[in-house]
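Hi there,

I know you've been waiting on this one. I reran it after we fixed the sequence typo, so this is the corrected version. Both the input and the resulting structure follow.
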Amino acid sequence: MILSRTVIVPDPFARANVLEALAGPGAPAGITACAVVGATLEIAFDAERTAAELVDALIEIGTAFVPARAAFADPTAAVAIAAAGLHEPALDATRIIETYLT
């Protein structure tokens, strides 16, 4: 059974979180469509493959946990943190946005 959710998410960062959770590479298998139209997300999913409660929880989490922008005083520290977290030892400052924000 295909179900749908229409969610208005005015915050663009929260909207991006929800889109990533429902349409990104780690999305639940039952998601059949996830589109953004302005501040609205249109989501369709197969309820036999993905529980509606999971979709609802991902929407709630995506809209609640929006990280605040944190300034890094030292771009080298930002690179080191990102490289360690991503297991990408070759990561350099040119690939880290914080380099351009300081």
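Quick highlight: The radius of gyration is 17 Å.

Best,
R. S.
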